[in-house]
Amino acid sequence: MSFLRALVGAVRSARHAPRLAAGLTPDDDVLLDAPDGRLAPALVAAALGDPEPAAKLLATTRDAAEWEDRDRYVRRLATFAYSRGEWLDRWQEAAPRDPDALLVATQLAVGRAWESPARAERLRELDPLLRTVTEESGRDPVPWRLALDHARGAHAGHAVFERLWEQALLRSPHHYGCHVAALKYLSAQWYGSHRAAFDFAEQAADDAAPDSLVRALPVRAAYEGLRPLPCSGREGAVPAAGPAGPAVAVDGERIDRAADRGLALSAAFAAGDPWPAEVRNLLAYVLVERGRWEEALAEFGRTGPYATSFPWAVGGHDPLRRFLATRDRVRAELARRTPLWGRAGGIPGRSGPRGH
Length: 356
What we know:
With about 350 residues, the chain is an all-alpha fold. The chain has helices at about 1-20, 40-45, 50-65, 65-85, 85-95, 100-115, 120-125, 125-135, 140-155, 160-170, 175-185, 195-205, 215-225, 250-265, 275-290, 295-305, 310, 320-335, and strands at about 30, 305. It contains 18 helices and 2 strands.
């Protein structure tokens, strides 16, 4: 019987899988961490050793209070400077007190410290630099997001975290990057619990504007809840259905509610919009983990050509290859569950832990 089931599944996959690729961007056209139209010229210029476009871009985001864009650009520029930093050195030499150059340099320094085996010690050595960028931040929340990331890795206590979080909120009550940094600190992976992370994420999502990415914060809490913890084994663990391996103790219904909220937010943006790309990639990941194959396929369709390193690079994976492989797996799983003479993608309801 097991051989017959496998044979029927293979026939169903062969019949239906090609149809399920119809709404997906072809593999060769998928882009990993593609920069937007404002960042791309700055990266091209930086590759040629010219920091001026990057300086103008970050100055514009600071003056216009475009905090979400500013946070993304700072991260991407620091990532670029990790292996090609001559342009950043030139920028700092020409303008040693430029707050934007200092912010990118601090992001780079914190990123490098995080990679060190002596992470906490290396991060603590950066305390004076973090104090400088936060003291000179004005109304900019991005230095405080960086300070929250720094505090987590440096093993700062809850009193320090709460002080930093209060300062971040004073500058931007609904800044997505700061909320993600706080959520990580409160997760069971670090200094909190699954319940604390979900409580924080759900409250923040309830308070956010309808089109704010903070509305998807519970999806991030779900992701943290699905990550394996050392010596987990607590009662009530949700079995993972996807590539991340064994899951930890967390409420499966709460994860599904978070995914539902993420789907509602994703539907508010046009398919292929680069702005919510990371949220959509993360949502697809969580849907796969929960075995919600049809919704996962639809979400992969909404991502369009925009794959993001997070969450696919976690664990040392090749992110683009893992994105494409997971997308293929979703098609295969959905095809295998479609009756031989049924229409692929037409199954009502959900599959997986909530209905398979």
